[in-house]
Specification:
Largest sheet of chain B: 3 strands, antiparallel
Radius of gyration of chain B: 18 Å
Helix content of chain A: 55-70%
Largest interface: A-B, 12 and 13 residues
Shape of chain B: flat
CATH class of chain A: Mainly Alpha
Structural class of chain A: mainly alpha
Number of helices of chain A: 10
Order of helices and strands of chain B: EEHEH
Shape of chain A: globular
Number of helices of chain B: 2
CATH topology of chain A: Ferritin
Strand order of the largest sheet of chain B: 2-1-3
Oligomer: heterodimer
Distance between the termini of chain A: 21 Å
Number of domains of chain A: 1
Distance between the termini of chain B: 39 Å
Largest sheet of chain A: none
Helix content of chain B: 10-25%
Strand content of chain A: under 5%
Number of strands of chain B: 3
């Protein structure tokens, strides 16, 4: 790489905001990989729309993190000039698109969480995060509706679509626990009313997920072993490849504009 | 292209309160729910609408283009049907 990574002063609020920004950017980038490849034109547009919603969320969160940090970083530097160990997104969201069923199950697991999360964050003591939440909640609500409808149709569709959807659920299930984890730095923000306790969202998340999966004639795995590490920067091998593509232009031609 | 699992739908968007739904295009979808979502994603990306209708294309009965002489030409010579001789008050708004 032709240009060095930035350093980030990860105070609790900066870190908290960056984690959510990274979630939105990485999932948004994954969805952008479908552009021109979706099973049908209508779905191509739907996936790109969701990706753009998430990119918009990422931009607002990065900009806010930059303001809070106050060290001259900005949204582009956060996105383009941090290496893989500096990214804080959920492992779930960096998982490759796989087939359409896997992309939809990933979207469904996350959107079912994001919908609840952003709705709860509208009451955050941090006015900026509350405002971002109010905008993001409507977007996430639609992502949840769209992915839910697909889960039902895939699961209750053909033999093949059912098998692919079940395989996707089985594969991604172990990545869902990380959404509800909290570390010491987040605990302080939760106590201050800035952040919401994700564990409090889990019963409703599980109810939503189990309801849709049941309607789809699919099943949730019995295993409760959960993968973790993304929030601390320990990622799967997939994120490095994603970032090398996402960052190649600004790393090769620093400051390039068009 | 034959798409038995994703038939064709016609999309109508109402851009503002007080206006009529207007035909904007068509799309393929498996059922009414997915057709409505696809219509939202395809045709309201730039804030075009407040309301969407989707209608199965097969539900539409269309006039035959080869009959357009019989169907439409008789009206062309009857300019007295156009209400051009009085002014519409501004208060009426859209007509």
């Amino acid at each position: 790489m032709a240009i060095a990574s930035i350093t980030v002063s990860e105070t609790p609020l900066v870190l908290y905001t960056l984690r959510r920004a990274d979630d939105a950017l990485i999932l948004g980038h994954r969805l952008s990989e479908w552009c021109g490849h979706a099973p049908m034109l209508e779905e191509d547009m739907a996936l790109a729309n969701m990706g753009l919603d998430l990119l918009g969320q990422a931009r607002e969160l990065y900009s806010y993190a930059a303001r809070v940090e106050g060290k001259g970083n900005d949204e582009d530097k956060f996105a383009y000039l941090r290496d893989v160990r500096q990214y804080r997104n959920l492992l779930l969201l960096e998982q490759p698109n796989g087939d359409f069923a896997r992309t939809m199950v990933r979207q469904f697991f996350y959107s079912a969480f994001a919908d609840l999360y952003w709705r709860a964050m509208m009451k955050s003591a941090d006015a900026t995060l509350a405002a971002i939440a109010a905008k993001s909640e409507k977007e996430s609500a639609y992502h949840l509706r769209h992915s839910s409808e697909w889960i039902v149709r895939l699961g209750d569709g053909t033999e093949q679509s059912h098998a692919r959807a079940q395989t996707a659920i089985d594969h991604l299930w172990a990545f869902t626990g990380e959404m509800f984890e909290v570390d010491a730095s987040e605990r302080a923000l939760i106590d201050a009313g800035v952040a919401v306790a994700p564990a409090s969202l889990r019963p409703q998340w599980l109810k939503t997920v189990a309801g849709v999966v049941g309607e789809a004639t699919l099943a949730l795995p019995k295993s409760d072993w959960m993968q973790q590490g993304g929030r601390e920067g320990r990622h799967s091998e997939h994120l490095g490849h994603l970032l090398s593509e996402l960052q190649s232009m600004p790393r090769t031609f620093p400051g390039a504009v068009w | 292209m034959a798409t038995p699992n994703t038939p064709l739908w016609e999309v109508f968007i109402r851009s503002r309160n007080g206006l009529a739904h207007k035909h904007v295009g068509s799309l393929h979808a498996s059922d009414t729910t997915m057709a409505l979502q696809a219509a939202r994603d395809l045709y309201t990306r730039r804030g075009e609408g407040l309301s969407i209708w989707v209608v199965p294309s097969s539900a539409i009965t269309a006039s035959d283009p080869s009959e357009k002489g019989m169907m439409f030409e008789p009206a062309e010579s009857k300019i007295y049907r156009h209400p051009t001789f009085y002014e519409v008050p501004d208060e009426v708004g859209h007509m």
